[in-house]
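FAQ: What does a ligand-bound record look like?

Like this one, built around 4-nitrophenyl phosphate:
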Amino acid sequence: MKSILFVCLGNICRSPTAQAVFADRLERAGLVIELDSAGTIPHHQGRPPDSRAIHHGRLRGLELEHLRAREVVETDFHRFDRIFAMDRANLAELQRRQPTRAAASIELLMSLAPDYGLEEVPDPYYGGDQGFERVLDMLDAAAQRLVEQIIAAC
Ligand code: 4NP
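The answer part, i.e. the structure of the complex:
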């Protein structure tokens, strides 16, 4: 596996946070994997992540400010080895758009950490600070699992 795309709805809360969390965990494990994130809607195209996502990421030493939102495009399905959706709606939308001969495997992100007990990363956009902290906790558990899986497979 050489590349991963994280996908949520707006690409300003969950998926850029996932990109930053996984980048940090992979770097600390000495693993080099290309990461990017995208949304299934174009509304926030070109914008930095939500200021609350930036703030809560920073509290954990993560840098999100340089990221810019974009919508998923057809080439993503050929360019990335794995595409991780944050929730079932994102997953269904990706499966609907997936070109016939695309190689990417499309999965729910929390399938990386089934023992966490939650299948979907809840959308924090309309909620408070607690939602952003919870998203970070879930993403960190998933990132830790991915690192363990990669190391175990080596
Ligand atoms: P995200 O959160 O999918 O985690 O980036 C959202 C961002 C924007 C909207 C909804 C969810 N929105 O409706 O604009």
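Follow-up question: can I read anything off the structure? Yes, for example: The chain has a mean pLDDT of 97.
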